[in-house]
Amino acid sequence: IVTLRAVTREYSGGVVALSDVNLDIENGELLAIVGPSGSGKSTMLNVMGTLDRPSSGQVVVDGFDLADLSDREVSALRAFRIGFVFQQFHLAPGTSALDNVADGLLYTGIGRKERRERAEAALQRVDLGHRLTHRPHELSGGEKQRTAIARAVVREPTLLLADEPTGALDSHSGEGVMRLLLDLNETGTTVVVITHERMVASSLPRQVTMLDGEVVDDRKMAVA
Amino acid sequence: IVTLRAVTREYSGGVVALSDVNLDIENGELLAIVGPSGSGKSTMLNVMGTLDRPSSGQVVVDGFDLADLSDREVSALRAFRIGFVFQQFHLAPGTSALDNVADGLLYTGIGRKERRERAEAALQRVDLGHRLTHRPHELSGGEKQRTAIARAVVREPTLLLADEPTGALDSHSGEGVMRLLLDLNETGTTVVVITHERMVASSLPRQVTMLDGEVVDDRKMAVA
Ligand SMILES: Nc1ncnc2c1ncn2[C@@H]1O[C@H](COP(=O)(O)OP(=O)(O)OP(=O)(O)O)[C@@H](O)[C@H]1O
Ligand SMILES: Nc1ncnc2c1ncn2[C@@H]1O[C@H](COP(=O)(O)OP(=O)(O)OP(=O)(O)O)[C@@H](O)[C@H]1O
Ligand SMILES: [Mg+2]
Ligand SMILES: [Mg+2]
What we know:
Chain A is an alpha/beta fold. Chain A is built from 7 helices and 10 strands. The complex binds adenosine-5'-triphosphate (2 copies) and magnesium ion (2 copies).
């Protein structure tokens, strides 16, 4: 569902965030991306998720070579197919947790009442049924993270890209989130998780390791 | 250096973030605050750090009962004595990593050239010597976190309050940060670390456990 070929991403000033990356992800896979701080994980996720274009190389998502699509077509592909959990959540500030999640279903043809029902169910799934009306500044760090997760999963995307989804969570909430992602994967969603937690990484069937902008290891393991 | 007596913090809407908290921290201690997401850890840290006033109860910092101080006196106490690492970093957006950290030394009587030298040394200490000129949007999640840590430690505060300082870091960078905090503690700084990582918590001599706004356990352990 995602193919990166010789992808390089360089920033002005000479920082090479990605260097000649090759990666193939099959539809329905579940994998972890690991590596030190600054090694290019978030950059690679953004390129996979069409949020960033590489300096060189080819990116194919869901069968489409991104170089052949207009910006408008890329936006549509992203909106309909890809769900994101960002490293810093990016929730809408003045908006309740419920509406933040419900807005994840805008433009899907689902009516307002049902969007809110599905949003409530998603929030209950991450144990935030008691925080529906809180706005982001009224939520703890881990509650913001769980709200961002609920928003990403509520539209059951084809591809879910999660950047450190358990970074702000204690082990109990973190396990709950990983169970949710596993369940999503079982219903067909391709799930890619950036994580620096080895427990999380080793519980997934495949680990891609990055170092200094390169993929240095890519292995399938028996699930721990 | 910090005493909380019967501290309660209630938000409008009825959420009780802290409930009858009693806590004594001696000068020079090193401890971890642990507990599930939403249990009140950040709220307690903000109260200890004078960023938030309790709904009821007494807060004594560095010998001063905060209820006796004017807002201006509280600000001065905080600026001179307390260093913070926030759960979401709060770096100044248009400003380089170097200046973000150097600004941590403003109003200390240290001249600009020396502020920048000390800032550079602090950033090198967290392995960011190669990112001095990058602004926050040009830094990875873990690099932002390390910049926030450098800014908090550069003025060698009396009391350092760190909210999930290794949350965005791989194990190698995370260990580096913990070594930095241990070194700071050895030179006399009282260090309080909120963490959801058990490895980090068990490596510190005391663990305070929170649940639903209450302190449910407070124990000194032999260091692992
Ligand atoms: N302004 C607010 N209004 C209402 N409730 C709030 C507000 N700020 C925080 N809360 C609630 O207070 C509780 C404690 O928040 P706090 O940030 O202290 O938790 P925490 O232990 O730091 O959690 P985490 O591990 O997720 O960071 C949370 O359940 C949160 O929803
Ligand atoms: N706009 C930018 N300009 C210059 N350099 C940048 C920019 N954005 C990111 N970088 C650099 O690119 C490198 C890779 O960043 P990226 O965010 O992908 O790392 P990461 O592996 O996600 O790190 P972390 O684990 O800390 O989140 C970092 O060293 C960072 O400093
Ligand atoms: Mg990142
Ligand atoms: Mg918190």
